[in-house]
Structures are given as C-alpha cells and as structure tokens.
Amino acid sequence: MSANFEAKKVLVEEIKEKLSRAKSVTFSSYNALTVAEDTEMRREFKKNGAEYKVYKNKLLLLALSELGIQGAEAYLHGTTAVAFSYDDEVSGPKIACQTAEKTKKLTVKFGLLDGKIVGSKEIEELALLPSKEVLIAKLLGTLNAPISALARVLIAPVTGLARALNAVSEQKA
Fold first, then answer.
1. What's the pTM?
2. If you average pLDDT over every residue of the chain, what do you get?
C-alpha cells in the first residue's frame, strides 16, 4: 500500500472519531472567504467548544458511510468545510450561520444531529436557539418564580404589620 493511501485511511479515522464525538456537525461551502474572515470564524469556533476543518468530499463520504450515515452524497459537492460542535448542539450551527449572514460567502449545506442528516433549514433553526446557559437560566427562573411569589405572599402580612407599627410610632413622635 502506498503512503498516500495510508494517510487517507488515517484521515478517515480522524473524521469518524470527530463525527462520533460531536453533538452536532455543520457542513458548509466556504467559497471566497478571506483569510481574515476564516481566521476570525475559526477563533469563534474554538472559543465556543467547536472545531472547524476542511476535508475532501470523498473522505467525508467514506467516513459517513463507515458510520452508517447515508444520504450525504447529494450535498457533498464543491468546497466543503465541517464544524464539529463538542460542547453543545447549538454553538457550531450558530457561528456558521452568523458567518454566512455576515460575509455572504459561506453557505450552510446540511448538518448532522444525533447521527441523522438534517437540511440547511434545520441547521438555521438550530442556530436561532439560545445557548445552553441561557436556556438553563430561563428554566431556573421559571422554576424559581412560584417559590418567590409564595415567599412574597407569606411575608406580606408581616411587612404590612411592620409598616403599620412604624406609622403609629411616627404619629406619636
């Protein structure tokens, strides 16, 4: 076997490992991105627990088919970059869609979510979701609201009594 063939096998194994580890994967076309735009986007991916790589379509197809994921053939043509989101499902699609909107040079092709292929519309909808931290904060606020309301209701008579006693003491003074 040639060294080139062995290098490609290693790359396919790398892609499979990253696909297996990622919570979501975004495939995009990156035509005409400048070096500065690409560098800024890569920095954002890294900062948000995601990784951005460019692979050949044949290697991507081979890795996907070895993982049992079918249907990517229709999308994998032209230039293809892959964003692997390791920390959460939203960060990779969000950065890719923001870059696409900002530069008009990047196009989301499709994505993987829970090992299944989803179209670009689903990836764009996923990108609109708030981050995991914001969702947790909203959930905690929702869970905390009834308890806070109950505490205010229970303390209201005591507060009213204290105000009334304070008003009486100020009248006598």
1. 0.73
2. 86
